[in-house]
Amino acid sequence: MPFLFSGVDTLHVTSRSFKNGEFIPAKYTCDGKDVSPHLKWTPGPRGTRSYAVIMWDPDAPGGTFFHWILYDIPPNVTELPEGKSIGKEGKNDFGKWGYRGPCPPRGSAPHRYFITVYALSVRHLGVRPGAPAEKVLRAMKGRVLAKGEIMGLYKR
Known about the structure:
By secondary structure, the protein is mainly β. 5% of the residues lie in helices and 31% in strands. It has one helix at 133-140; strands at residues 9-10, 13-14, 39-41, 50-57, 65-73, 79-80, 88-89, 111-120, 144-154.
């Protein structure tokens, strides 16, 4: 996928909300309170001027589905508390701003939800709030210094 930005340094991403590779609790989904999970990551390499967070589901029936787009996060922020967004929010594929959690079709196999954190070489991407993921990802091209991700599963 073009938004994976290979060949960059690695950030270590963790969450108190769920462990990498395990099921995401319903609290963070459309079946619960639909609040964003806690996230924490290691600081980006020298030259990091901001961060971006993108949550996506590659298993959605219509192809990759974006659940959370957050960018222009200040470089001193390396943790997002549960239910909090810092920086500018993009518009997810539900057509809403901010976080919308897993909500796969009932009865389908578990879907994978990747939350990727990017360390960027610019303070601002020059993208207005409410931008879709594709626009944010295009603006990130050539500016990604490091990335890391955590993956959770969900089934209804």
